[in-house]
């Protein structure tokens, strides 16, 4: 037996998942905002440092040094020119102030340099040989990595666009220059040096964000613990409420439902004590009503079952009676060698509205009938009995097919308050000559095989269905059957048979099956058609009666010789 999870467990698990997601969401959002805040503080500090250094020296002096660096980069100045500046007292004083400032503010680096825009944009994805920045001052924390006046280096490609924008516009960037090195996370500030309305270089400061990781880690821990504690307390309080207001009443309802089944459908009185004033109380009242209704239903079901068994027995008798009314002994006329006939009827229900019939009117005339009553079940079967009886009685009196159909139509119209109707194909074969006189009252087109052509559709004249309007005229037609010719008549249950996707068997497929061996005996032809229908339909339910009749004319000794 599969283990079941209690409702309380599911609710607790759901709240636990919700709590985890809530903690993660709150912590994540707070972490991003807190980290961004700290980064901004560090970035603002970096810009303050650059402003301080900018105030240490005159813009004119820096512009002069930067102009020399640019000339050296472009080949217009020599290293001797740069060495002369580096040895000057002014340059050494500024460098000393720069180093002192870096130490006092605990920065990684403070530098002054000129950025070659053309070389900057020439970046091809590799920093090898790519040196767009030439230094004037550099005060890196690691003396072995300090750049001298005239040294050139690459920059971080991630900041290429921002660096170019600062040089071209002369405005500081709104973005953070965040990088990671051996000294941890760092933030940089870059300020352009503007002289006589032109950007002649830039001052850069890199400071370590020493408290960023520890501060954010502490924030995450405290946030998670705080949110988790508040969430657990809220869940515990709410779970206590849920247990009393929902889980306990539901457990009571579930237990009473099981007890009702196990103890012989005894009505539960505890269900009346559930007063939650919500859907649970409605469920309890509904279950109590259901228990009462089930007991009433069982009482009625016992009576209905007995009645159903009686009706089933009567339907079995009706099925047998209907089956006995149809000719089903084959060969039907062993003494008649002039023709071979076979017919079958498979009702969709216990009894059907289709029927077939064949009988000798006299020694030289054979009547053939196939019909389809509107509707299904008992009403159709009763109407079928009436129609079959009337048709046979009129035909056996020697009337022509036209007279038979017109007379029976009027009789069926009398007191037909159920508005039922029947489609009929009636043919009378003159056995000695092969002449078939037929009338079609709204029925399916016959299929006929003549000579070596195989079966084809016979588009005969259609009259109106029977049982709807009195005094409707019906026209007859004649066809001549020669030895070896066959006629196949059927109800719409054959072409309308459908598979599970509602594709119909159809007339073309019926003709194809018949023409697989058109010279086969009638019984074999009908069995082949039914087998192909069953294969085509598959597991789909049969929704209409399937009735077929086939006659092969073999002729008399005289017309066989002719």
Quick recap:
The chain is built from 13 helices and 17 strands.
Over all CA atoms, what is the radius of gyration?
52 Å
Helix proportion range: 40-55%
The strand count comes to 17
Report the average pLDDT across residues: 82
pLDDT below 50 for ≥5 consecutive residues: which ranges? none
Descriptive report:
The protein is an alpha+beta fold. The protein has 13 helices and 17 strands. A hairpin with a 2-residue loop joins β5 and β6 (198-208). The longest helix is centred in the middle third of the chain and has 51 residues, at 212-262.
Write the layout of secondary structure elements.
Elements: H1 7-56, H2 59-74, H3 79-86, H4 89-105, E1 109-115, H5 117-121, E2 133-138, E3 152-153, H6 160-169, E4 177-181, E5 184-195, E6 198-208, H7 212-262, H8 279-325, E7 339-346, E8 354-362, E9 365-373, H9 377-396, H10 401-413, E10 422-430, E11 435-441, E12 447-449, E13 455-457, E14 462-463, E15 476-480, E16 486-490, H11 506-514, H12 522-537, E17 546-553, H13 557-561
Parallel strand pairs: 11-14
Antiparallel strand pairs: 1-2, 1-6, 2-3, 4-5, 5-6, 7-17, 8-9, 9-10, 10-11, 11-15, 12-13, 12-16, 16-17
């Amino acid at each position: 037996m599969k283990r079941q999870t209690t409702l309380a467990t599911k609710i607790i698990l759901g709240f636990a998942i919700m709590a985890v997601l809530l903690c993660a969401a709150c912590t994540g959002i707070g972490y991003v905002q807190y980290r961004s805040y700290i980064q901004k503080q560090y970035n603002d500090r970096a810009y303050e440092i650059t402003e301080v250094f900018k105030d240490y020296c005159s813009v004119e002096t820096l512009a002069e040094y930067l102009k020399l660096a640019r000339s050296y980069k472009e080949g217009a100045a020599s290293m001797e020119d740069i060495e002369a500046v580096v040895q000057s007292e002014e340059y050494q004083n500024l460098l000393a102030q720069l180093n002192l400032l870096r130490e006092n503010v605990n920065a990684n680096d403070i530098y002054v340099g000129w950025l070659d825009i053309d070389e900057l944009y020439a970046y091809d994805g590799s920093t090898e040989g790519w040196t767009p920045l030439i230094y004037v001052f550099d005060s890196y924390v690691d003396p072995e990595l300090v750049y001298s006046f005239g040294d050139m280096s690459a920059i971080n490609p991630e900041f290429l666009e921002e660096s170019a924008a600062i040089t071209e516009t002369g405005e500081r960037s709104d973005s953070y220059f965040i990088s990671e090195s051996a000294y941890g996370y760092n933030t940089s500030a870059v300020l352009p040096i503007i002289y006589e309305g032109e950007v002649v270089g830039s001052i850069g400061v890199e400071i370590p964000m020493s408290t960023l990781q520890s501060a954010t880690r502490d924030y995450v821990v405290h946030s998670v613990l705080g949110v988790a504690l508040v969430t657990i307390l809220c869940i515990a309080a709410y779970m206590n409420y849920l247990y009393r207001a929902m889980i306990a009443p539901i457990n009571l309802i579930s237990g009473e439902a099981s007890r009702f089944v196990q103890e012989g459908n005894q009505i539960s009185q505890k269900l009346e004590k559930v007063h939650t004033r919500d859907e649970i109380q409605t469920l309890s009242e509904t279950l109590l009503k259901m228990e009462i209704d089930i007991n009433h239903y069982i009482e009625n079901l016992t009576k209905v079952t007995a009645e159903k068994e009686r009706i089933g027995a009567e339907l079995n008798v009706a099925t047998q009676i209907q089956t006995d009314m149809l000719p089903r002994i084959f060969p039907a006329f062993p003494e008649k060698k002039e023709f071979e006939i076979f017919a079958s009827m498979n009702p969709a229900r216990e009894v059907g509205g289709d029927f077939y019939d064949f009988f000798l009117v006299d020694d030289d005339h054979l009547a053939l009938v196939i019909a389809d009553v509107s509707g299904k079940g008992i009403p159709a079967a009763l109407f079928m009995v009436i129609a079959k009886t009337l048709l046979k009685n009129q035909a056996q009196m020697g009337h022509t097919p036209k007279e038979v159909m017109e007379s029976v139509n009027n009789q069926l119209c009398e007191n037909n308050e159920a508005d039922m109707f029947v489609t009929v194909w009636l043919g009378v074969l003159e056995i000695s000559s092969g002449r078939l006189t037929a009338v079609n009252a709204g029925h399916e087109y016959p299929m006929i095989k003549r000579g070596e052509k195989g079966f084809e559709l016979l588009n005969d004249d259609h009259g109106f269905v029977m049982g709807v309007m009195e005094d409707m005229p019906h026209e007859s037609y004649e066809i001549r059957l020669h030895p070896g010719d066959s006629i196949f008549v059927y109800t719409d249950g054959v072409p309308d048979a459908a598979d599970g996707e509602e594709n119909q068997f159809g007339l073309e497929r019926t003709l194809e099956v018949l023409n697989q061996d058109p010279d086969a005996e009638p019984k074999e032809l009908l069995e082949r058609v039914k087998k192909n229908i069953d294969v085509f339909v598959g597991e789909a339910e049969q929704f209409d009666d399937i009735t077929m009749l086939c006659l092969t004319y073999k002729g008399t000794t005289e017309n066989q010789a002719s």
